Amino acid sequence: MKSKTSNPDSLLDELLAKGGRPLKLRNLRAIHELCRRQYEAGLRDISISTIGKLCERDGLLTARGLYNEGMVDYKVLILAWSDFAGPAAPKPPKQLASEDYLSRIDDPAIRAIVQGVIVQRNKLKAQLNTLKAATTIVVDRRPTLQGSNSSVSTLFTDSERKALLKAVSPDFLESQGWREANFGEVVNSKGRTVFDPGFATAVRKMLGH
To answer: Listed GO molecular functions (predicted)?
Structure first.
């Protein structure tokens, strides 16, 4: 779709020389001026979509209209301007808030001091983030026997172990009109909590069951 003519002005003359309806010739001139204004303003985004929006803004034609099959001459003219303007300038890197703040400090000595503070802050923040990512703190509040590897279950006699196990056994709970619910809580026949969630499971864990 690109024209062999490198200069958009020459291409416009060629397109106008082909003749056509007065409306088309008027629109060609208008689109040519839109592209020229973009170029002279230093705006290198001279694409079909951008010029289409400008055409719609100025009431020339709809933005989608440029994509119709019969709009080839318009698109050729826009693409010639796009080639003539060259690629858009790369966007400058986004300036950090701290850099923007530093740029507004006129005194070089104060600027250097503030910059050092910012560098130190960023260093400490990076170290803190590293610690947050790498550190895992485990809190184990279960009672243990000092100087021994014995489990909690060894604290109980056989009779005490049997009594505790019986207290959370299904048969015993049923005989009391109770039952163990989903989270280890013990509830009565009306669904009211007798022992809080985790009671039955905690007893079994203590005894190694």
So the answer is: hydrolase activity
For the stretch 30-63, pLDDT in tens is 999 999 998 888 877 888 888 989 888 988 888 8
Q: Which residues pair with 180 in a beta bridge?
A: 186
Pair of tokens at residue 194: 């007798």
- Answer yes or no: are the C-beta atoms of 11 and 80 closer than 8 Å: yes
∠ CA 34-35-41 to the nearest 5 degrees? 90
Instruction: Report the 3 state secondary structure along the chain.
Output: CCCCCCCHHHHHHHHHHCCCCHHHHHHHHHHHHHHHHHHHCCCCCCCHHHHHHHHHHCCCCCCHHHHCHHHHHHHHHHHHHHHHHCCCCCCCCCCCHHHHHHHCCCCHHHHHHHHHHHHHHHHHHHHHHHHHHHCCCCCCCCCCCCCCCCCHHHHCCHHHHHHHHHHCCHHHHHHCCEEECCCCCEEECCCCEEECCCHHHHHHHHCCC
Model confidence over 56-89: pLDDT tens digits?
898 888 888 888 888 899 999 999 998 888 776 6
Burial per residue of 177-205, b for 16 or more beta-carbon CB atoms within 10 angstroms, e otherwise:
ebebeeebbbbeeeeeeebeeebbeebee
